[in-house]
Amino acid sequence: MTLKFKALPTDDVRALQRGAFDAYGMVPECRLSDGDGVPCRHCLKNVAAGEPYLILAYRPFPALQPYAETGPIFLHAEECARADDTADLPELFKETRDYILRGYGANDRIVYGTGAVTPTPEIVAKAHELLALPDVAYVHMRSARNNCYQCRIELAAEA
């Protein structure tokens, strides 16, 4: 089983960078980064000091339903290259001590009993464990402090 850590889709991000409304129907706010703790969910790098970034409400689900959590995320205000899908935990996430991992079914609903604060060194193993469960189609990684969406984790298609 090979994992895929997946950044936000480029089409969604470009629309937001060009002024599309966020999940709450608002125009994303634009600020200048102080260089500390402003992780872009598209390139999976911190926005450098002095660079503009967007704050917006993001819902990483295809439709509204009771389990479709919405929360704040950051994006570069200017176009950036999407991070490649990777089997390894992206560097950006190694700087934080833990995250929430939570499994979701093919119906985009939480699979009860899968959510847990997970120490960063255990994320890959925990994602494998969750994705081995028959009811789990994918996993979300979220901030353990603020519940902000970080990325999606899936199994890579076997060749």
Please characterize this protein's 3D structure.
The protein contains 2 helices and 8 strands; from the N terminus they run βαβββββαββ. It is mostly beta strands and 159 residues long. Strands 1-8-7-5-6 form a 5-stranded antiparallel β-sheet, with helices on one face. Strands 2-3-4 form a 3-stranded antiparallel β-sheet, with no helix packed on it. The radius of gyration is 15 Å and the shape is globular.
What's a concise summary of this model?
The strands form 2 sheets. The chain has a 5-stranded antiparallel beta sheet, with helices on one face. Strands 2-3-4 form a 3-stranded antiparallel beta sheet, with no helix packed on it.
Secondary structure layout:
Elements: E1 3-6, H1 10-17, E2 29-32, E3 52-58, E4 71-76, E5 98-104, E6 116-119, H2 123-131, E7 138-143, E8 149-155
Antiparallel strand pairs: 1-8, 2-3, 3-4, 5-6, 5-7, 7-8
The helix/strand order is EHEEEEEHEE
Report the helical percentage.
10-25%
Question: On the 0-100 scale, what is the average pLDDT?
Answer: 95
Q: List low-pLDDT spans.
A: none
Name a few traits of the molecule.
single chain, 159 residues, mainly beta, five-stranded antiparallel beta sheet, three-stranded antiparallel beta sheet, 2 helices, 8 strands, 11% helix, globular
